[in-house]
Amino acid sequence: MKPILFLCVLAASVVFPAAHPADAQSFTERDRRTEYSTVHAIQAELAPEVCSLAGFEQCDPIPVDVWTRAELRRWMIDNMERAFPEDEWLRLGRCLSEIGLSREGVNLQDEILDLFVSQAGAGYNASLGSYVSLLDVPSRMKSSSFRRMVIAHELTHAYQDQTVDMEAVHLADLSSLDRAFAHRAVFEGMASVVMYSLVQGVPLSDLPDVSAYMRDTFVRSPEDLSGADSEPPPHILVQHLFEPYVEGTSFVQHILQARPDRPLVSLLTRMPRSGEQILHPEKYLSWDLPTSIDLSRIRSVLRGDWQEFHQNEIGEQDLRLLFSLHGSTPEVAARAAAGWDGFSLIGFLDQNGSLALVGVSAWDSSEDAGEFSALFDGILSKLHGDGGYGLIRKDNRVSFAIGFGRDLTEKILNRK
């Protein structure tokens, strides 16, 4: 397994190439006090610089917690219900498997827990408002230079949290995979450019292309994150963990160049509304908003024995991944996903607990809709067979239904 470090505790995370977690060992109270003192001293040194670089108005001191990996796992398990109400990640995973974005039977909620705990090193915990440092990491990760990078990044998250309620943002984003990507890209992109600016002693405006370095350096393959006896984590989780750092840093640097007179923190007062605005910063600058898609009329078609299960929004970045997972080259996948202007889906359970799915996507043009439709139709046919789904394209919209049976599928699609 290629080494990676996730510095994350639920609400905020940062990723660096690193080594395998240290072997399990016992730690004394003296170890905890030493770790606390070291982290606290570096925080005190870096806090004024981080606050000034990003232009934060509020930069209150950040408490420090020192945990072991086992303590992190226990905390996450205790807080899973609050962090992911009503099993939203589990429900999302079932819906994504119907369109080929997740493996069937994979519990995304369990995968998140395992992925975070196994790779964690340190991070800002928005739920507790504290910096959490883990004791059981290799000693070379506790070097002064590495610590300074990590703490600068996480202090940025802490001050973001003092400007906007990050936990509230993340909870609201459970209903939109696309918006979650966009918001995390801003949080991580800001923290990354502040970190590199501080460590390299270069003004934000003079930084080289940090995203290029991050894309070359970061490990993003699920296979690199799996052990010898375990399945790799789902691609969709890995994408939403890594890509916000790369794409977010590129986005932030683009905005810094386009609007050099505005402080970095101003991004938090006008957060992007879609991943499309992250991938194409000019659409953020022109405030090109996605089309709002109303799926409420679907309910009038379905009888009372259908129970609503989960509703979400899929972004351009997710469609790129979808096409890549099903054989398209990166170039073809990017081209077929371009022109995205909105994508909503909603899942329903029948009386037997079987899942059925409806989705509608909007596109910038009928040509964009046609290119998407051709590839997506092929994926659905492979997954469900010719009689297991329906898909229609009308002008710049593409609608589909999966698992309702032929007659009901026709009624649903005609209704749309």
Q: Span between N and C termini?
A: 47 Å
Radius of gyration (Å) = 22 Å
What percent strand?
Answer: 5-15%
* Global geometry: globular
* Biggest beta sheet attributes: 5 strands, antiparallel
Helix fraction, binned, reads 40-55%
SSE order, as H and E?
EEHEHHHEEHHHHHHHHEHHEEHEEH
Strand order of the largest sheet: 6-7-8-10-9
Which residues sit in consecutive blocks of at least 5 with pLDDT less than 50?
1-24
Residue-averaged pLDDT? 88
Q: Can you count the helices? A: 16
Strands, total number: 10
Structural class: alpha+beta
Report on the structure:
This protein has 416 residues and is of the alpha+beta class. Helices cover 50% and strands 15% of the residues. It has 16 helices and ten strands. It has helices spanning 29-54, 69-83, 88-98, 108-119, 144-163, 166-172, 177-200, 210-217, 235-258, 275-279, 281-285, 298-301, 316-325, 330-337, 366-384, 406-415, and strands at residues 5-9, 12-16, 64-67, 122-125, 130-134, 307-313, 340-349, 355-363, 389-394, 397-402. The strands form three sheets. A five-stranded antiparallel beta sheet has the order 6-7-8-10-9, with helices on both faces.
